[in-house]
Write a structure and sequence with these properties.
heterodimer; A: Rossmann fold; Rossmann fold; 15 helices; B: mainly alpha; ABC transporter involved in vitamin B12 uptake, BtuC; 11 helices; globular
Chain lengths: ~400, ~290
C-alpha cells in the first residue's frame, strides 16, 4: 500500500514539475484583432489594424527565437453583444491571450468586462472613451492610443483660448459621443468657455442637415463634433454646403487621416484637431509608414489607431519576452507591461500609468491648404505639441479603483 | 419645448430634401415590384453604383456632373438589364421570397466588391459649379444644390408616373403584368418590356445615386444604410403603387425632419414605428391594392 502511495506522490511531483517547466517555456501566443471590418470605421481601423499587429509580430523578432504567434481578426459589426460574444468565444475556444484595437467605445466597454473575467490582456487602440482608465478600469486593460480626455483637452482648450468661447455640440448617440462631449465640456469650461446646447444624432447618419441647422441657429461660435469616422466627414462636408464654416468654426474633436482624404482638402483645410500620431512626424514614423504603405490597401499610411495597434502589440511581445515565456495570465502580463518603459519609433518614449493609461505626447494639427499639400496623404501641419504628462487625465483626477490604496 | 417657427420650417424643408431621395428610390422599387413582382433588395447597391459611376466618369474620363446625370443611370440600367436577363427572369414565376433572397445576395456581392476596392470611408465628389452656394430664405440658408434635388426629383417622379399611368407604352406594361399571354398575343414582346422596365427602375436608383453623390459621401455602404428605410417607405405607401410611393417618400422625409427637431434620438426609428402602425391598421399600405 505504502508503495502505491509513494509512487502516486512521485508521479504527481513529476507531473507538477513538468507542468511548471512547460509554463515557463510556453512560447505560444494568440492575438485577436477585434475591429470593424465592414462598417464606417473599417478604413481607420479594420484590416489595417490587423496588418499593424502582424507587422508588430514580425518586428518583435520573437518568431526567430522559437515563439509561435498567431494573429487573427474578427468583425464586431458595431454591436456590443457581438463583440463581447466573439471575445468570449476567442478566450474559450481559441485560447486567446490578447485582444487589441476595438474601435467603437460601446463595444470597447463590453469587451473590457469579458477580458477581465477571462483574465486576458486588452490593449485598446480604436476606442475613445476615457472611462476605460477611469470608472471602468481593470488590471487587464491598457488604453493605448488616445482617449476622449486627450482629444478634449487638446482641441477644446486650444479653440476656447483662441476666442471660441461658446460651443454647441453635435454628438454621436453612443458611449463615445457622450464621453467626448463630457470631457470637452470640462476642458472648455476650465478654459473659460461655455456650452450653449447640444444635439445627439444616431451613429452612422447619412444626412446631418437638420442637426447642422440647429447648430447654426444656436449662434455658438464653435460647433463641436463629438463623433467619428464617416459621421465626422459627412458632417464637415454638409456644414460647408450650408455655409456654416463662414460664421462659425467647426471643431472636429476626432479626425483621422482617412476622414481628411474622404472630405478632400478643399473643404477640410484649416480644421484643427488633436491626434497622437501622424505618419509624417519624424524619421521614425516616416520609415514605418513607408513599410506599412507597401502592404496596406490603397498604399494608405497608418492611421493613429493602426499605429497604436502596432505599438501596443510590440510592447506586449517585449513584455512576454522579458518574462521568458507566456504565463497565460493577463493581469500578470499587464503588470509587467506597466513596469517596463515603452519605446518605439511611432510614439517615441512613454510609459503606462497604473490605471492602464498609456501616455505619450499629443499633437494639435491643422489641415493643410490644397496648395500646401505636396504629395498624397500630405495633409497635416503641426501646430503644437502637448507633452505626455499633460495630454491625458492627471492621475489624481482618475477615478480608477486600481489607484485607491 | 417652445416651438421656434423658423427652425421648424427649416426642418420641414430639409425633410422634403431627404424625402426626394426616398421618393426616387421607392418609385424605382414600386415600378419593379408593380411590373415584375420582384422585391428588389439590390436597389440600394444599384443606387450606390450610380454614385460610383458618376465618380468614375469624373475621375477617369473627365466627364462632369451634368452628363453623368444621364450617363450613369443608363450604364447602371444596362447592368440591371443584364442581371434581369441572366438571373431574375428565371425566378419570375416563383414565390416573392426567391426574388428577395436572390437580389439580397446580389446586393451583398456588389457591396462587398466595392468595399474591397474602395474601403468604407467614402470618396469626395464636388457640387457642380453652377449649383454651388446658397440662398438665404430668411428662415434658413438653403444650399442651391439641395433645392435643385427637390425640384429635379419631383419632375422625374411625375414623368415616371405619367409614363406608366398615362401613355400607351405604360398601358401595355400594365396589361402585360395583368395578363402576359394575352398581351403577347397582340404581338408585343413582353419579356423585352419586362427587361426594359427593370432597367428603368434600376436607372431611377442610379439617378438618385448621382444626385446624392455631392451631398453624401460616395461610399460602398451608402445604399445599404438607406435601403431599409426606403423599404419601410414602400411598405407604408403600398407595394407597387407608383403615386403612393412618391407621396409617401416625400411625406416620410418631412416626418423624419420633424422628429429630428422634436426628438432627434428617434429620427432613425420613426419611419419603422409608422410602418408598424400602418401594417397593423392597413396591411396593404396606405394606397396599396389588396391582393
Amino acid at each position: 500500500m505504502s508503495h502505491v502511495i509513494a509512487r502516486l506522490l512521485l508521479g504527481t511531483a513529476i507531473a507538477v514539475t513538468t507542468v511548471s517547466a512547460a509554463a515557463a517555456q510556453d512560447k505560444n501566443v494568440k492575438i485577436g484583432v477585434l475591429t470593424d471590418l465592414s462598417g464606417i470605421y473599417a478604413d481607420l481601423a479594420g484590416p489595417g489594424s490587423t496588418l499593424a499587429a502582424q507587422m508588430a509580430v514580425e518586428d518583435s523578432g520573437l518568431k526567430a527565437k522559437g515563439w509561435t504567434i498567431d494573429v487573427i481578426s474578427g468583425d464586431h459589426q458595431h454591436k456590443p453583444d457581438i463583440g463581447a460574444n466573439l471575445a468570449r468565444q476567442w478566450f474559450d475556444r481559441e485560447k486567446m491571450d490578447m485582444i487589441t484595437d476595438v474601435p467603437n467605445s460601446g463595444v470597447a466597454l463590453a469587451v473590457n468586462n469579458v477580458v477581465k473575467e477571462k483574465n486576458g490582456v486588452y490593449i485598446n487602440s480604436g476606442g475613445g472613451t476615457s472611462d476605460l482608465t477611469n470608472a471602468q478600469c481593470t488590471p487587464n486593460t491598457i488604453h493605448w492610443t488616445y482617449d476622449t480626455y486627450d482629444l478634449a483637452y487638446g482641441t477644446g482648450t486650444a479653440l476656447t483660448k483662441a476666442g471660441g468661447d461658446s460651443w454647441f455640440f453635435l454628438t454621436a448617440d453612443y458611449a463615445f459621443g457622450s464621453a467626448l462631449e463630457r470631457d470637452t465640456t470640462n476642458a472648455l469650461t476650465a478654459a473659460g468657455g461655455k456650452v450653449t446646447g447640444s444635439v445627439k444624432h444616431p451613429l452612422n447618419t447619412s444626412d446631418f442637415s437638420s442637426f447642422l441647422l440647429q447648430a447654426q441657429s444656436s449662434g455658438a461660435k464653435v460647433i463641436g463634433l463629438a463623433n467619428a469616422g464617416g459621421d465626422t466627414s459627412t458632417t464637415i462636408k454638409q456644414a460647408a454646403e450650408f455655409g456654416i464654416s463662414k460664421g462659425q468654426k467647426l471643431a472636429a474633436l476626432l479626425l483621422f487621416i482617412t476622414d481628411v482624404k474622404s472630405i478632400g482638402l478643399d473643404l477640410a483645410q484649416g480644421l484643427s484637431f488633436t491626434e497622437t500620431f501622424y505618419w509624417d512626424l519624424n524619421d521614425g514614423t516616416r520609415a514605418f509608414s513607408k513599410r506599412y504603405a507597401e502592404r496596406s490597401k490603397g498604399s494608405a499610411p497608418p492611421t493613429m489607431v493602426q499605429a497604436g495597434v502596432y505599438s501596443g502589440t510590440l510592447h506586449y511581445l517585449k513584455a512576454l519576452e522579458a518574462m521568458g515565456g507566456n504565463p497565460h495570465d493577463g493581469a500578470k502580463v499587464v503588470a509587467k507591461m506597466k513596469e517596463m518603459p515603452t519605446d518605439d519609433p511611432l510614439f517615441g518614449k512613454g510609459s503606462i500609468q497604473p490605471n492602464g493609461r498609456k501616455i505619450h505626447p499629443s499633437y494639435l494639427f491643422e489641415v493643410k491648404k490644397p496648395s500646401e499639400s505636396k504629395a498624397p496623404w500630405d495633409y497635416y501641419k503641426l501646430v503644437a505639441t502637448i507633452p505626455a504628462d499633460q495630454a491625458f487625465t492627471p492621475l489624481d483626477k482618475s477615478t480608477c479603483s486600481l489607484l485607491k490604496k | 419645448m417652445s416651438i421656434n417657427l423658423q427652425a421648424l420650417s427649416a426642418q420641414l424643408l430639409v425633410g422634403l430634401i431627404n424625402g426626394s431621395f426616398y421618393a426616387l428610390l421607392s418609385l424605382g422599387l414600386a415600378v419593379i415590384f408593380g411590373m415584375l413582382n420582384i422585391i428588389n433588395f439590390a436597389h440600394g447597391a444599384l443606387y450606390m453604383m450610380g454614385a460610383f459611376v458618376a465618380y468614375f466618369l469624373l475621375n477617369l474620363a473627365g466627364i462632369g456632373y451634368w452628363p453623368a446625370l444621364f450617363l450613369a443611370p443608363i450604364i447602371v440600367g444596362i447592368f440591371g438589364m443584364i442581371l434581369e436577363r441572366t438571373m431574375l427572369q428565371w425566378i419570375a414565376n416563383l414565390d416573392h421570397l426567391y426574388g428577395l433572397l436572390l437580389t439580397f445576395g446580389l446586393a451583398l456581392i456588389i457591396q462587398g466588391v466595392f468595399q474591397n476596392y474602395f474601403g468604407s470611408s467614402g470618396l469626395p465628389y464636388a457640387i457642380p459649379d453652377a449649383l454651388k452656394g446658397g440662398v438665404n430664405l430668411g428662415f434658413m440658408f438653403l444650399p442651391i444644390y439641395r433645392g435643385w434635388v427637390v425640384i429635379f426629383s419631383l419632375i422625374v417622379c411625375i414623368a415616371t408616373w405619367f409614363l406608366i399611368e398615362r401613355t400607351r407604352l405604360g398601358a401595355y406594361l400594365r396589361a402585360a403584368t395583368e395578363n402576359p399571354t394575352l398581351v403577347r398575343a397582340f404581338g408585343i414582346n413582353v419579356p423585352l418590356m419586362i427587361t426594359l422596365t427593370y432597367g428603368l427602375g434600376v436607372g431611377l436608383a442610379a439617378l438618385a445615386g448621382v444626385l446624392s453623390a455631392p451631398i453624401n459621401q460616395v461610399r460602398p455602404l451608402m445604399g445599404a444604410d438607406l435601403i431599409i428605410v426606403v423599404f419601410a417607405v414602400v411598405v407604408i405607401g403600398g407595394m407597387g403603387s407608383i403615386m403612393g410611393s412618391v407621396i409617401t417618400g416625400f411625406a416620410l422625409g418631412i416626418v423624419e425632419g420633424l422628429t429630428k427637431y422634436f426628438y432627434p434620438e428617434a429620427s432613425n426609428t420613426v419611419v419603422f414605428v409608422l410602418m408598424v402602425l400602418v401594417l397593423l391598421v392597413k396591411p396593404s399600405g396606405l394606397t396599396g391594392r389588396t391582393t
